[in-house]
Amino acid sequence: MTDEVDDAQPNDTTVEPRLPDAITKLGIEAQAEYLRARERLGLSLGPVAQLGTVGRYRLEQEIGRGGMGIVYRARDPELDRPIAIKLVQAKPLAHYDKLRARLLREAKVLAKLTHPNVVRVYDCGQHQGEVYLAMEYVEGSTLRQWQEGRPHRSVLDAYAKAARGLAAAHDLGIVHRDFKPDNVLVASDGRVLVGDFGLAGLPAGDETRSDEGSSLGDSRAPRGSTTRTGTLLGTPTYMAPEQLRGEGAIESSDQFAFCVSLWEALTGRRPFEGEHKEELLAQIEQRRVVGVEAIPRRLRGLLLKGLATDPAARFGHVRDLAAAIRPRRSPAIMSLVMLLTLATGLVVGWLLEGKTAEVTDCDLMTSLAKVEELSRSPEIRKSFDGLLPSYVELRSHIGDLKEEAKLLCRSDVDPSLLARRQQVEGWIAYLEHMLEKAPRLGAPMLVLVVDDLENMLSSVPPPVPLDPRVDELLGELRIEIADNEPDKAMATAKKAIVEAGSRELELAAAHRWRGRALALLTSRSAEALDAYLQALDHTEAAAYDPGRPDLELLIAEIAVMRCGRTELAEEALRHIPGLFRRFHEPWLSGRRSDYHEIKASILKRRGEFRSALDQQRRALLIRYLKLDIREIANGHVNLGTIHERSQSDGPSLARLHYGFARWLLDMASLRQSPEWLQAAYNLGHWLANDPQDCHRAEGLLEEVRRRSADLQVYALTDIVLAKTTCEDPSAARAAQELVELLSQTSSISEEKVLDAWATIAGAYSMTHDLPAFESARDRLVHLVEHADDANWRLAALDLTAADALQGFVPIRSRELAESARAHLLKLPEEQRPAEMLKAANALIR
Domain spanning 142-325 has what CATH number? Predict the structure, then answer.
């Protein structure tokens, strides 16, 4: 060290210039601009070193002005290495002598701080009356510049490193006082280093009330925000409330600033916004947080804890925060590990024998402990036989839920977390109920429980908790849906709507769950769609925009897949990309793959098969990157359905996709999953049209029919089709069985009802039962009247019947062939199957 002045005394006669009254009445931005203007005019800078030497260091180039002075690139001739020299300037709003003495004292401590995430201070001293610091020279950019456009995972990794640097300083009793992304450097080799320690203000206890104006800085963030010369106590928009009140900075004040910075990096906005110091303080104290919906789920509680108004409610040490925000292992990597170890059962052993996280004494944790114990029981594991990956997923989600519950237990005084706590309480109760019943549940319901839990964990809670009575009724409704009790569910949904009164959030939740009950438990698809539309209206009226993406996707899905309303589905999907951008939807999220898959369904119905294949492949790519085996198989099944409809695009590819999906699920021990049954059904459906494989199709479809109550109508329809293809006389008897089953079943889609009646009519035509054929055909003509693909369906039926009746009732055969041709000619030319038209013309001749 050179010219140390540990015992320097403050100059008691220093007179601090005051900002003009006209400026102090303006906001922070205007005050900061005024100080910058003074700098540009040379009114706020002390003597500036000319390029030459400072101490033993040779200055080479000015590289920046910020923080508290000018920074030069210099060279240390003794060690022959580049360094940075910061020459600390006097400023109009500071006790300079007091500042100089403090800087030299703290520089001595900083010189002892050696940490990979802190800019090293090598030396300090005085030059022409100014304090200088010789520091590590870092080639790179500021964290603010670096983080622009980076993925969240990379940003979190960088901030975790910066937090470790802060922790090392705190261990030496050093408080930063002005942490923000402009004061963190990212070196060209990837190192993250915190700089400007201890240079933002006086230590706690040394600050004076007259320095209040010196807390004004450049608040132009999120881009280009710096604390300019003329600023002592940091940047107000990053300050903790105790700093804004003039109480001085402590270690947890740095933690608050850190969380503001990370919040801004993830959302593009700071959590608290205000033009004046008083307005900022009011926003913090009233917990008016903005942008919470864009924060990744697992980080919300962590950052809100670090942003607590009371310093004692924040993390005990910034090191705890650093560990908590560290990026988790990629779900795709975890899934890959799971697949590689699946055969040996190591995954389950790892889950069951792993360390149990510390349990906080809290009602949430008590309830969750019971759920965790249930999930480990032999009965539950046996229930998931043939569903091992789903069981692993369940245990993983319970672990996530546990981490969230621990945070909520520690932070239940924060109003911004009350709604999330209510959500978690309700879902723990639902999960406990479902696990207790798991041994009696079928595979589809077990998988639904896992999917529901994932959706809950990725959802954004409403801004305030729901009315307790409405929330209680919705909890009952969830269980009644799971227990397959449609009458009870409808009655409970009605009670919830009445209880909600005119409260928009409650009405939105009640209508949404009524829609779910209608969609899952009944065939009243139009009513379910209407319920979802009402839920969306109330969601928008409540200004609860984070709730919109899920509702828009539900509306689009049920509109196109069950109601044939493609225009409504397209309108709902039109809003989704903007909502994804607004709320920072992860690129590998299930919502994104669902969006592409629903879009593919719309395009398939319109006959735009190439575009449909492109959208379905996008959905499948996301699922491959996530290594979600069930969804990968489901994606291949959907690709198969598009190829099946695309006559000119190689329908044989459909068989390939269906077979691959079934093989993949067999290999992943998912033979009991709903996806396996769906793949087996689709493969059977495809083989049912092939005279060489129709008997094999019957075998597959009989297994599906035996194992799945939900696919009874679907499987029997294609059993009838397979018998018809094989010219099995028992096709008529199977067709009559299907007619009876249709009269007893209500919870199937309109599209499948049309498929069933077309198949019934085809079976009767093959067995030459003309009256039964005409009756079934009339029923189909009535049902198909408003369907988008009515012409294609009627053309296919009439052509099949014309061929079957050709040698039996030639006149009727010709009439049906002419009808088939007429329907084909109504199709757009690019959607018109040439082979079908050729066959119709041949039968007419």
Answer: 1.10.510.10
